[in-house]
Amino acid sequence: AEELDPKHHLMFRREWLRSISRAPAQLCVLEVRGDSMWDTLHDGDHALVDKSQTNLAREGLYVLLLDDALVVKRISMHPVSRTLTIKSDNPNYPTYSDVAPGDVSVFGRVVWIGRRL
Length: 117
What we know:
Elements: H1 14-20, E1 27-31, E2 46-50, E3 60-66, E4 69-77, E5 84-87, E6 96-99, E7 106-114
Antiparallel strand pairs: 1-2, 2-7, 3-4, 3-7, 4-5, 5-6
């Protein structure tokens, strides 16, 4: 994501939003750009992000704020050292291991993706 300001609104059923988030008001949709998360996410996909989910102890796809840009990465936490591994699904991009959780600015957790067929 290159901009943080909303451009459009999408409609979802309120009941469905409540079923995937304890804080539906904290949900937002981002359009994916680039290929670093290929094959999971494609350029042009939409990711529903729960901004209330910033605890990185749960493995998953997270949106991070890096140098004023939003990026989606797969994050896992080592159960003993509590350090993070941050990786792209595309093997052409680097993986970062042993990252301290305090060194990461978390925007939210990806809870749903949608794409055009």
